[in-house]
Design goal:
The structure holds 2 protein chains of 2 kinds.
Chain A lengths: L1 H20 L1 H35 L6 E7 L2 E3 L1 E2 L1 H7 L4 E7 L1 E6 L4 E7 L9 E4 L1 H7 L6 E5 L5 E9 L5 H4 L2 E4 L1 H8 L5 E2 L1 E6 L5 H11 L3 E5 H7 L9 H22 L4 H12 L4 H33 L3 H8 L16 H28 L2 H6 L1
Parallel strand pairs in A: 6-10, 7-9
Antiparallel strand pairs in A: 1-2, 1-12, 1-13, 3-11, 4-12, 5-6, 7-10, 8-9
Chain B lengths: L4 H29 L1 H13 L12 H4 L37
Classes of the chains: A alpha+beta, B mainly alpha.
Chain lengths: ~375, ~100
């Protein structure tokens, strides 16, 4: 065993010396390889952290949300629907919810307004998210002016600012009293934005949702499970910008491996011929090339993954945050809680390290099994 | 005494693995440290019946992707396309596009 390990170390020494003889080329190779691992790793860490955080923050989202759809558009729902839904077996409670969007032409930002009866807000008082506070530069005690759909301006006193720690759910929120909300948007009596349904037995949520869809063909029930699964698809491999990044990275990687697999340079062949000539076995030559490939792969993998972790969780993934921000004026800082899935890291390892290492050995086989004299002459 | 190249490489690997392990430990520590604020945020979401994360505020179908309808990404005019950058990373909800 000791002899075997010592032999492998000697071969590793030789492999590293061989790599250092072509240090410029191998350094460039390692840099690009690390870049590919960095891209893939960054997307993986960001996506997993986002999904993990969504699953924690939205675990208690309403069990069923019932919307009214008119000609494919979300419309206000009559509160009468709640009476019929309450009669469905298994339904514990139904309540109307009022929420909507307000575009502020001064800051050019979109706010989400939620009527919050439980917040105990006096008339013309609001609680705002930290993003709104930042964009408008207003703090607790100051006044914000909002314009109603009737064209009238109303002043609202800022009763409080939500904490920055809750920014991922609240940065653009404005909590407002029910009467103020209705006056602002001229909401008629007897309607709500949507209905929230609580179900006694959580296993019956989908059954109750199906019954609601049957009773009200113009209603669209959305279950909690569907809300959470929406975030499984955010920043997913299978679409949009992420697919473009992934395709580019994989294409670059395939070109790498193909370039390695298609053949050796004359210098590399001569080197193998000399080694065979001085007494190296075919197996020794293959081990040498294996260690060369593994040295580059492992170095690139470690550098790529460590940089990806630092980029996503220490630097807050500025490039990805830019994509989410888009044209938004108001946006949260992406201080995601670090979440590493060991399974994903292992998958990344096998998809990046193994193919390249194998691709390094393949072209060597023929040269290693050919007569040394012939290899050196060619 | 000359240090062998394999020793330097193995040391580099060892340091790399230690850094990765530290990253894992940092992730675990941060999760614990953030537990209280995450719990508070989750409680906030429960009380005010929040349904979506605030990832983007440029369009309503990316602000509340789970509540989006078919109409909003293409509402600007006939044959309009989804033109907001965040739409490229926030797909339609599963309630609109059924799973195969």
């Amino acid at each position: 065993m000791t002899h075997f390990l010592e032999k492998q170390r000697n071969i590793l020494d030789f492999a590293l010396s061989s790599l250092l003889r072509r240090w410029g080329r191998n350094l460039a190779l390692t840099a690009v390889y690390s870049g590919i691992v960095f891209f893939l790793g960054s997307v993986m860490f960001f996506t997993n952290a986002l999904k993990h955080e969504a699953s924690l923050l939205l675990a208690s989202t309403p069990e069923i949300i019932v919307q009214k759809i008119v000609a494919g558009r979300h419309d206000l729902i009559p509160l009468d629907y709640a009476e019929k839904i309450r009669k469905i077996r298994g339904v514990a409670e139904v309540q109307g919810r009022l929420w909507g969007y307000y575009y502020d032409p001064i800051s050019r930002a979109n706010y989400t307004l939620i009527s919050a009866p439980g917040a105990g807000l006096p008339e013309q008082n609001i609680i705002i998210g930290e993003g709104i506070s930042r964009v408008l530069n207003v703090q607790k005690g100051r006044t914000i002016r909002l314009r109603s759909v009737a064209g009238r301006f109303a002043n609202f006193k800022v009763k409080g600012v939500l904490s920055p720690e809750s920014a991922l759910v609240s940065t653009d929120l404005m909590l407002i009293g029910e009467d103020d909300f209705k006056k602002l948007f001229n909401i008629p009596p007897g309607v709500a934005t949507d209905l929230l349904v609580s179900v006694r037995n959580k296993k019956e949520i989908s059954t109750v949702a199906a019954k609601i869809a049957e009773i009200f063909p113009d209603a669209r029930p959305i279950t909690r499970d569907e809300v959470l699964r929406t975030y499984d698809a955010v920043f997913d491999w299978r679409g949009g910008l992420v697919l473009v990044i992934l395709t580019g990275a994989l294409l670059a990687f395939v070109i790498f491996a193909w370039e390695k697999a298609t053949g050796l340079s004359a210098e590399e062949k001569r080197e193998i011929g000399i080694l065979k000539g001085i007494g190296w076995d075919t197996a020794d030559v293959l081990q040498l090339k294996f260690w060369e490939g593994l040295a580059i792969s492992l170095t690139s993998f470690l550098l790529g993954v460590i940089l990806a972790y630092a980029y996503v969780f220490l630097a807050d993934a500025p490039l990805f945050a830019t994509v989410f921000k888009g044209w938004s004026v108001l946006y949260p800082a992406f201080h995601l809680t670090p979440f590493i899935s060991f399974y994903q890291v292992v998958i990344l390892f096998f998809f990046t390290v193994m193919p390249y290492t194998v691709a390094t050995i393949v072209p060597v086989w023929k040269a290693a099994t050919t007569d040394p004299d012939q290899v050196m002459r060619n | 005494m000359q240090i062998r190249k394999s020793s330097i490489f193995l040391l580099f690997l060892g340091v790399g693995l230690i850094v990765l392990s530290l990253a894992g430990l940092q992730a675990a520590y941060q999760t614990g440290a953030n537990h209280r604020s995450l719990a508070d945020s989750a409680e906030f979401a429960r009380i005010f019946q929040v349904t979506d994360l605030c990832l983007s505020t440029e369009a309503r179908y990316t602000r509340h992707p789970s509540q989006a309808d078919w109409h909003s990404p293409f509402q600007s005019h006939p044959l309009a396309l989804d033109h907001f950058p965040s739409g490229s990373v926030i797909p339609p909800p599963r309630t609109i596009i059924p799973e195969k």
